[in-house]
Structures are given as structure tokens and as C-alpha cells.
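Example record

One chain of 111 residues, shown exactly as stored in the release files.
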Amino acid sequence: QVQLVESGGGLVQPGGSLRLSCVAPRSIFTINTMNWYRQAPGKERELVATITILARTNYADSVKGRFTISRDNAKNTLYLQMNSLKPEDTAVYYCNAIQYWGKGTLVTVSS
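Predicted C-alpha cells for this chain:
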């Protein structure tokens, strides 16, 4: 069974930073575009950021300039550096590759 495992979520004050990590099986990680999604309470899941195997990135407008997606191919690990966090960034963040999903990690931005 393919497992993607996220970590790094937590409670942070507005303006703060967090870094999320996602470890994926090498067979998945090295040949696929990797994505971060998020789902806020009562809202649909939305794409936050994407990184291709050539490290080309794309971001949702709502996070541009604040979030940075990156990948370490040697460690099969995907990252999401989140800076200048806002209360509206509160959500469960999911790692995704093709049809595979992690269980998510909760990010709460609140004072």
C-alpha cells in the first residue's frame, strides 16, 4: 500500500511560519509531480502548490510570495515552507502524487 506521510502542522500565530514535510515512496516520488492541497473547514479541497520532477513550481494566487514548495529527491521528501501565515490559511494540508494521498496535517493560524 502506497503511503504518503505528512508532518509539521501545528498551531501558529498570524505572521508566523511553519514547514510541512511529506515523505513518499521512492517509486512514486522520483517520477511524479508532487502537490500540496489543503481543505479548510466547510470548504472544498484546493490545490496550494505544485512541483514537477524538474523542480518547476506553481502556486495558488492566495499563497504566492508567502509559501515555497520544494523537494529533496535524495530523501524522497516534499516540503512546504509557509511564511506570513494568516488565519485563512487554517486547514488540513495534504500531500498528493497522482492518485495517492496522505492523511493530512492540521495547520491552525490563530492568536
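Notes: Residues 26-29 form the longest helix (4 residues).
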